[in-house]
Amino acid sequence: MGDELLRVEGLSTRFFTEEGQVNAVEDVSFTVGDGEVFGVVGESGSGKSVTALSVMDLVESPGRVTAGEVWYRNADLAADVRDDHPEAVDGDYVDVRGVPERIRRSLRGPSFSMIFQDPMSSLNPSLTVGEQIAEAVEVQRRASANPRSTRSRTQGFGLGQFIAGSLLPSRRYVSEESRSRAVELLEQVGIPDPAERADEYPHQFSGGMLQRAMVAQALAGEPDLLVADEPTTALDVTIQAQILNLLDDLQEETGMSIVLITHNLGVIARMCDRVGVMYAGEIVERGSLEAIFDESVHPYTKGLLGSIPDLADPAPRLSPIEGNVPSLLDAEMGDRCYFADRCPKAMEECLDHPPEFDCGDGHGARCVLADHSYDESRALPEGYFDGDSEDGGAAAGPASGDDADSPDPEEVTGDD
Ligand SMILES: Nc1ncnc2c1ncn2[C@@H]1O[C@H](COP(=O)(O)OP(=O)(O)OP(=O)(O)O)[C@@H](O)[C@H]1O
Ligand code: NI
């Protein structure tokens, strides 16, 4: 297990909605090494953000993490919780889902920190940027000054606010030291005149500067792991590149690990060491950058690679493969491979839901092609799944004739 900071195993998250149970994240496993940048890529709605929120334990009702373990390597924490929660400790690793919520909450900031998809969900418009960052620093300062038993209460207070983006009515005392540390952090993330900018409100910041401020806020606790959910999506191309450079530099300076969520494979190629490709709530392929870009097995990954939006392309969303992302409603999901009806290589084997096959060297794919080669004689006829979204395909027969209008799944639009 060596240098892994985080080991996520079998994570599943569901939303219990009026329409039914939504399987937003299904049996997701991945690891993040020390100082590693792990990328999560996939189309809109594939479960990237919910995966991030699940790791951070920030899933809100009607959602709930229903299964899985999140093993975090922290020897001090392991020593602290070993007696009370032996089943949640494995050597220096702690399953953060197996410890009480107050302990889990205490990890947000100093252990795990997150940059959210929407800037305004983490900065409070009615407080100066400096105050908010100083508050995050103060929380961390108290945490490290206090023993863990009191730490969790302190942490809970500050971080509840940090996450909700609104201060509790009674303002906390924030030390002069924390204020000057906030200015330092603003400087570290490349904000000019940081002392003056600290006294400004979020609306006085441009998009790029606001993103930098959010990075500063997320780093205030000196986290081991930063989860960055589409940190550059809303920004124009030049600013995007600057923020990615900033994250790169900060990663090197601090040695932290990063989970970087994006729909842009160009960003993945630029930033990541290893990658998980998500589709319909699952990681369908994972491996090193080289494995994913040069030796991918899953036709979905290959489809994504067929149209890499580069950084100079402001296209906001990936939609390179014909067909739609399947419904994640449990009742509509069926038992087949969820990609089968868009897959140019769908075979009879794909009517059973594939496990993850090991391709060696940490490369895995949830696709039968990882196990045996494509056999044309077992190919499902084109249109096999047409008009069949309800019961997983078993009952659907071949579509009549060859329909010239039916979408060719191999065709990649590439112009999005
Ligand atoms: N509060 C909710 N209630 C019901 N379903 C939800 C809720 N939040 C997310 N989902 C479902 O979970 C699935 C995954 O959503 P998620 O936000 O993780 O996608 P994503 O990959 O981050 O997409 P994007 O690239 O658009 O941000 C979606 O199908 C979505 O409908
Ligand atoms: Ni998202």
Automatic annotation (TrEMBL):
It is found in: Cell membrane. It catalyses: Ni(2+)(out) + ATP + H2O = Ni(2+)(in) + ADP + phosphate + H(+). Pfam families: ABC_tran, oligo_HPY. It comes from the Archaea. Its main location: membrane. Residues 402-416 have a biased composition (Acidic residues). Residues 6-305 form the ABC transporter domain. Coiled coil: none annotated. Residues 392-401 have a biased composition (Low complexity). GO terms for biological process: peptide transport. It is a peripheral membrane protein. Keywords: ATP-binding, Cell membrane, Ion transport, Membrane, Nucleotide-binding, Translocase, Transport. One of its GO terms (cellular component) is plasma membrane. The complex is composed of two ATP-binding proteins (NikD and NikE), two transmembrane proteins (NikB and NikC) and a solute-binding protein (NikA). PANTHER family: NICKEL ABC TRANSPORTER, ATP-BINDING PROTEIN, OLIGOPEPTIDE TRANSPORT ATP-BINDING PROTEIN APPD. This is Nickel import system ATP-binding protein NikD. It comes from Halomicrobium zhouii.
